[in-house]
């Protein structure tokens, strides 16, 4: 498949750039598709289109925005199977997981943006002053490859709801979901210019961020790139929303139901081959329970059959690309050299696999908090176990990384879980395995980022205030 048409002024147009990116199927390692990057001229056309789109859409009614979002949700739902298949082919996400998790998350994202529109207080009278919430302008949305359609929706749907226009630069490593999303936008009845799509990698991303006609940058991706984007945006005083990496802890308190907790913790560290920003990659357990946790956790790995992501029986596909495979392997290698104890998994391909970027689920114990594997995001199916002797030490360990995106706590009562959760310096905490509610604000503290997405909170991210004095 060749991705060589960008989207501007409500139509697909030929890219004229010379750079090309190859996307390899992580199961076969064969070339799956090629992305042709946009030239400067294409980028300018998309930004010009977004300026026209903003003039039009910033004065649209809330009813129009709701109507378009409802249609977008419908159009996306119609493409669910195609999106799930592209995720399997391009990033190795098991096809059932794409259909049951990645696409539904995107649909919820559109729904909550539509509902958030109604919940928002758009005007407020204060004495003789009328305070209005107004759209910021043209948004540059830059997204990664791991949950590509959800991450695109998390930016574009609230921007549409806010009355902004968007130039979207999706990951060059997962183009299929982005194109299907754009086709859904095209069919949604949104006026041309409101949402635009450009293809390209880091270089094009840099040019987009520093373009003077971009008013705000919304980025999801690695902390290193997020830092660069904030620096680039700061020279023009642009607002930035940054959704970055994480090293989230799942904390088991002494009175927790271990049998209920462990399958969920394993799932939250291995789902999507561990390539989730909210991955619970550190398990914190009381020292006295370590032996029991280890002996109960390791057999659960058998319920994660590894294989072709297009096979419905597969629970663990390959990691998305060769670079991820090398990173996972080298981080496990370093951890073992530093004294970590291997409970299951390890480096290299699993038995019986001679090709594909497969990494088995790896669980490491005897991990010290100062080890790289306990501090840095692996972005692979790797879970490390750390022990604590007191609740104070558990809090210190949970908060002992530069990140603060997510976390989990398991306790005998919800009151105990909530008390512990409130001591965690992180944007969200899942208590006793509850479902994550996508209508609540999502985002990080520290090196996990700045700003919030989801529902009305995501819309507010793209709004500014205007005060009219003397207005009634
Ligand atoms: P990445 O940072 O390498 O790339 C993300 C996007 O930024 C891509 O579209 C890429 O082309 C673009 N880009 C790269 N360099 C750029 C630059 N200098 N200027 C502008 N754009 C640039 O991340 P990735 O490897 O695609 O994704 C994995 C990372 O994303 C992980 O660290 C993960 O934790 C993070 N992530 C965070 C969240 C969240 O919501 N907090 C969600 C998913 C993934």
Describe this structure in words.
The chain is of the alpha/beta class. The chain has 2 domains: 2-244 and 447-469, Aldehyde Dehydrogenase, Chain A, domain 1, CATH 3.40.605.10; 249-437, Aldehyde Dehydrogenase, Chain A, domain 2 (3-Layer(aba) Sandwich). The protein has helices at residues 40-57, 62-78, 80-91, 95-119, 148-162, 175-187, 202-209, 223-234, 258-270, 290-297, 322-337, 372-375, 391-398, 414-421, 455-460, and strands spanning 2-3, 5-8, 11-14, 20-24, 31-36, 123-126, 129-135, 138-142, 165-169, 195-197, 216-220, 239-243, 248-252, 280-286, 341-344, 362-365, 382-388, 407-410, 430-431, 449-450, 463-469. The strands form 5 sheets. It has a 7-stranded mixed β-sheet with strand order 15-16-17-14-13-18-19, sandwiched between helices. A 6-stranded mixed β-sheet has the order 10-9-8-11-12-20, with helices on both faces. Strand 13, helix 9 and strand 14 (280-286) form a beta-alpha-beta unit. Helix 3 packs across helix 4, helix 3 packs antiparallel against helix 6 and helix 4 (95-119) packs parallel to helix 5 (148-162). The chain is globular and about 65 Å long. The N and C termini lie far apart (57 Å). The structure holds nicotinamide-adenine-dinucleotide. The site of nicotinamide-adenine-dinucleotide has 31 residues, from helix 7 and helix 8.
What are its keywords?
472 residues; alpha/beta; Aldehyde Dehydrogenase, Chain A, domain 1; Aldehyde Dehydrogenase, Chain A, domain 2; 2 domains; 7-stranded mixed sheet; 6-stranded mixed sheet; globular; binds nicotinamide-adenine-dinucleotide
